[in-house]
């Protein structure tokens, strides 16, 4: 029997509510199949920071590092200045565990409404591979003459051959398993003539090793346009950290919204961390109205990364069935509570078992 240690990092806001539902699904999976999950809870987040001024401790790193995967709810607290928790926890963990890929599938499931007129699940089915450790997120920069009218602030985009190379290789490897087999580089080579020139050179160098994979290039602004107008053009999009952040929110919207959008912070050789990408949604906290499907989708991604494709697929089908029963995917408008949605997914897994 395969056994996995899963670190649960519910975090802030609606995080704990959605992680609860994900745990229900994992419990169902382990009772249905021959697999065992051992949950290790971690209380990192805004509340702990406000109480103890603590961000990520050595003990946290040890606990999280000893697990097979991390399931994160959300990080972000209304009483903590924006940036502290995001930088000190989320971005810190991504870098510390060298989760160098941020994998964000943009899939429109059947029966889900997209704001794009005339587009169907056949048209919206691609994956964004976002570099997750550097670029504008590297934290390079500073102030001169802080707080005066002479102030200068810089924030540099760091782009290393190593990080770009491994990210692009990951994207090509990912595309290999797809039907379409196409990788689009999303950059801005006409303006970022150093950084994205490096990206472009590495992209075409790596592509030489994958003769069966089609390559394409789009400037980030044009990619935004095409994601709305012709999403069917895309299979795998590879891009830098900042552009990846932006286009994946656009991606989330065209797949039906934050209620269903999930992502994985992946270190293929280490500990990966999976999360719904919607944030902590303080407005909806503790109301039992947030949509847990995104966190459940993150759970499915986690199982896939652990090599348990069958369980991952099973949960994905449960998500598809359940999503069709909701009035809307948006928080507060689902026509069901958070826990009801989790129960529905569990039920769909049970139903299949009885077939
Ligand atoms: C995301 C988020 C984070 C990011 C924030 C919360 C730091 O927007 O995961 O996309 O910018 O990466
Ligand atoms: Mg983002």
Q: What would the principal axes of the Cα set say about the shape?
A: globular
Q: Can you tell me the number of structural domains?
A: 2
H and E string = EHEHHEHEEEEHEHEHEHEEHHH
Q: Can you tell me the CATH architecture of the largest domain? A: 3-Layer(aba) Sandwich
Could you please say which CATH topology of the largest domain applies here? Answer: Isopropylmalate Dehydrogenase
Kindly report how far apart the N and C termini lie: 24 Å
Rg to the nearest angstrom? 20 Å
Using the coordinates above, name the CATH class of the largest domain: Alpha Beta
**What quaternary form is this?**
single chain
Rounded average pLDDT: 97
Provide a count of the helices: 11
Task: Quote the beta fraction.
Answer: 15-25%
Helix % is 40-55%
Total count of strands:
12
Uncertain segments of ≥5 residues (pLDDT<50)? none
> What is the topology, as strand order, of the major beta sheet?
2-1-3-12-11-4-5-10-8-9
- Global structural class: alpha/beta
CATH superfamily of the largest domain: Isopropylmalate Dehydrogenase
Main beta-sheet annotation: 10 strands, mixed
Query: Bound compounds, please?
Result: 3-isopropylmalic acid, magnesium ion
